[in-house]
Amino acid sequence: MDDDELISVLPIHYSNSLSPNVHIHQFPLLSRPLQTPPAAAVSGKRIRARIKPITRRLEIHVPVDPRPEVWNGERSKELGAARQEDDREKNQDVGKMKQMEGEDPRLAEARMRSELIPQEGAYMLGVVRNGQLHLQPIGETHQFRPTLTYLDIMSRKSRRSRGDTGSDDDSDDGPPPDPDEPPPKKKPLEVKEVQVSARKAADDKGNLQGGLSAVRREMLLAIRAEEDEVWEDLDFCDGETAEGHEAFEAVFSQNEEHLECKSDITAFLKGIKGL
User: Fold this and answer.
1) Which of 100, 107, 103, 109 is nearest to 80 (CA)?
2) Could you report the per-residue pLDDT of 97-128, keeping only the tens digit for each?
3) Has residue 85 got a pLDDT over 80?
4) Coil, strand or helix: which one is 117?
5) How far apart, in whole angstroms, are the C-alpha atoms of residue 42 and residue 75?
């Protein structure tokens, strides 16, 4: 555009001093900084984090706001019991401290678990400071989502209490029929004879394989390996801590060496594939 004027030219400072420890953590619908609610901080609660280094799974635990006007204490007991059972089934029990104290399990924190997003190409973190653009390569990108698997435990208990143990389908049969309309005519059932044969297949090594496909088998093995891996605790430091300020300052390069470009625009264009 003719009216799109050049405002300023920024010198670029590139540094990989933090590589590969610079991550992008995406939190959906997060409208405020990731901090402990003031009412929870008064009681000594803090944000906790943990990691499974082999599967590269991160989890952040944020304390809930315990004020009665925004939190249902009685409901938190039901949800806490369901989460405790869900942790036990997945071998991820973290409620041993409360069991030792003899307290009832409560849903006292919101958990957000990460999904590793594959990166195609190189991604950079850029921060403009004092008229200079500082670049840091990004090692990984994680998408965090709340873990609500404990709701499946409550739904399963609810179905058992209603006697719906034989079906996991929560859908109904639609609205009830109109009493003023005549009932629909039933079509006669067609009977067909079907013959099915099954056999076990063997791989190249002679090992018999079941009905699971190779992709599904790999998925189940990956899920089992992740559940068996032990969590390792991490220290969570928000932006207001001394550690947070130190990490933020490490993003900016302190190297004042000037680089001289020895190539021209022609050599640059020839180096681009497809042109």
Assistant:
1) 107
2) 445 456 678 898 999 999 999 888 788 889 99
3) yes
4) strand
5) 22
